[in-house]
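Support reply, case 0932

Customer input (verbatim):
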Amino acid sequence: MVVDGHRHVDAGICSTTNADLLASRDDLDLIVVSAPLASNGTFSRSVDAPMRWLANGQIRSEVATLAAAGHRVVTLAPSSAVARSMGFSPLADDRDAQRDVLRRARVEARAKIMAACPDLVGAPTAIVEMVRAA
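Our regenerated output:
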């Protein structure tokens, strides 16, 4: 697409998260990578398994870049249960499924962040407040 005479490319063509772009930042306590198109490492034989497998490879590379730069990183990716709730089309307009995905994902995100970063549990940050509300 062209904006004001400059060509732009949707960054999603290279990565589903672009997390590695934060590697040079030195003012971050924690980087939370939200990776809804990946998987938490459990794969099924579903139609979306190849997409999730490819996304995982990209995210592992980006997280390695962040870790090498000294960052603490937590990656949030759907478990098998959440991926099943999402179905093949994560953008489907099924309100009941969306509520189920949101509920499951919030519970998983809260548990993962609090387990990985117990020192941040009392911190007044938006992410900690969001996961506390789960």
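We compared this against your earlier run and they match. Two observations from our side: The radius of gyration is 16 Å. The helical segments are 49-68, 80-86, 95-116, 126-132. Please reopen the case if you see a mismatch on your end.
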